[in-house]
Amino acid sequence: MSRLSILRAAVPRGIRSYSVARSERSREPGRELKLLHYVYSQPDLDAIRGHPRKVLDLIERFGEEYQYHFMNVGRPKGRIVTDLIAELRPQTMLELGGYVGYSAILFGDAVRRNGGTRYFSLELNPEFAAISNMLVELAGLRDLVRICVGRSDLSLHRLYSSQTVRHVELMFLDHYKPAYTSDLQLCEQYGMVSPGSVLAADNVVRPGNPPYLEYVRSSVEQKRQAAQQKLQLQQGGKNFNTTGFSDRVLASYMGKDSAPAFEVVGNPNLIYRSELVQPEGEDVSYPGPSTFYYWL
Ligand SMILES: C[S@@+](CC[C@H](N)C(=O)[O-])C[C@H]1O[C@@H](n2cnc3c(N)ncnc32)[C@H](O)[C@@H]1O
User: Fold this and answer.
1) Ligand 1 site, residue 36, Cβ cutoff 6 A
2) pLDDT tens track for 216-250
3) pLDDT surpassing 90 at residue 286
4) Which of 31, 90, 164, 236 could disulfide-link 68, Cβ–Cβ 3.0 to 4.6 Å?
5) Whole-structure pTM over 0.80, yes or no?
6) Which of 59, 70, 99, 254, when mutated, tests ligand 1's pocket best, judged by the most ligand atoms within 8 Å of its CB?
7) Strand pairing class (4-7; 198-202)
8) How many domains are contained in the chain?
C-alpha cells in the first residue's frame, strides 16, 4: 500500500494513527486493462455513468475480487485530501502521477463539489492515462479533469508556459519518488508554488523520500547555501537526488538513469510548515504509520 503526505498552508492538525491491510495481491502486467474491461462490462453501466463514487467502488471491488494490487491512494488517505479540498476549495488542483484515475476521480469529484473547475492529472504512462481517461469519462468528470500524458516536469513546464496554470493551490504528489523534489523546485522557480500553496505528498516515510523531506524542512539559509553550491558545482537540477532511495524505487517508472528535464534550484526563500498527520487505520498488522505533512 502506498503512503501519502500533505503539505499545506493552514492550521496544523493533530496526529492520528492508521494502518493498512496487507495482502499478497497480484501485480500481474495488464491488470489495469482488465480493470477497464471489468468496469465497462457492468450490466448496469448506465446507472454507474456520471457517479464518481460508483466508479471508485468498482475499481476497489475489482482489486478485492481478483486480488490485484492497484497503486490507488485508497480511502483512508484519500479522505484526508478530500477534507483538504473541502477546506481550501481550490479552483484548480494538480496531481503528479495519475495511474488509472482513482485519485483523479476521487479528488476531481471533491474539487467540483466544492466549487472548483479544473483538475490536472499528470501521468507518464500513456496506457494508464488512456484507462484513466475512460474511467474519468464514465464518472462524468470529463469537463473538469484533464489528463496530461508524459513526464511531469515537461507537463508542468507546458502548463506554466501556456499560462494554463500560474499558481498551484493544491497539488498531490504521487509519482516517481526522486522527482518530488525536482518537480517542487520547478514549480517554485516558476512561481507556481508560492505562499498559500498546499502540497500533499504520498510515500514520503514508507518507502520514504529523504531528499524531499530534507528540502522542505530546510531553513531558508540552508536552502540558499544548497542552491549556491549546486550552481557553483554546475550540477544544476540535471540529476535527481537519489540519496536514501532503494534500487527498486530508483528503477521504478522513469528508471535509474533518468534525469530531470530542467536545471532548477527552486525558490530557497519559501518557508514551509509541515506537520505529521497519520490517517486513521484499518489493520493493526501494518508495520508502519503513514504520514502527512502540511506546508506553508
Ligand atoms: C502510485 S501511482 C499513482 C496513483 C494515483 N495517484 C491514485 O491514487 O490513483 C504512480 C503513477 O505515477 C506515474 N509516474 C511515475 N513517474 C512519473 C512522472 N515523472 N511523471 C508523471 N507520472 C509519473 C506512474 O506511471 C504511475 O501511474
Assistant:
1) no
2) 999 999 999 999 888 887 655 478 999 999 999 99
3) no
4) 31
5) yes
6) 99
7) antiparallel
8) 1
